[in-house]
Amino acid sequence: MTQSKKVVIITGATSGIGEAISEAFAKEEATLVLVGRDRDRGQRALEHVEKFDCTAQLVLGDVTDSSFAD
Fold first, then answer.
1. 16-24: long-range pairs with CB below 8 Å, 24+
2. Of 11, 26, 29, 47, which is most buried with the most CB atoms under 10 A?
3. Which residues have CB under 8 Å from 14's CB, separation 6+?
4. pTM for this structure?
5. Distance of CA 28 to CAs 22, 40, 60, 68, 69, Å?
6. Domain range spanning residue 24?
């Protein structure tokens, strides 16, 4: 695997457009930070992108909540 210099933070990564964006960047071997609110869906999204041989991690939280960044 060639390590990409791209680091991508994707909010809403556990469904819909966010999930599709995650897959696209995973195919480019970017390092991904997947942000979502649901642990089970987040784990499935993480396992999915890791199939593309990229580095990824899951962060659980709601970015619309002001305490998320604390």
1. 19/45, 19/48, 22/48, 22/49, 22/56, 23/48, 23/49, 23/52
2. 26
3. 34, 36, 37, 38, 41, 42, 44, 45
4. 0.87
5. 10, 25, 24, 28, 28
6. 7-62
What is the token pair recorded at 24? 């696209």
Q: Is residue 68 part of a domain?
A: no
Q: What would the pLDDT profile of 18-70 be if each residue is shown by its tens digit?
A: 999 999 999 998 999 999 999 999 999 999 999 999 999 999 999 888 888 77
Q: Is 8 helix (H, G, I), strand (E, B) or coil?
A: strand
Structural domain includes residue 69: no
**Domain harbouring 31, CATH code:** 3.40.50.720
Encoded amino acid at 51, one letter = K
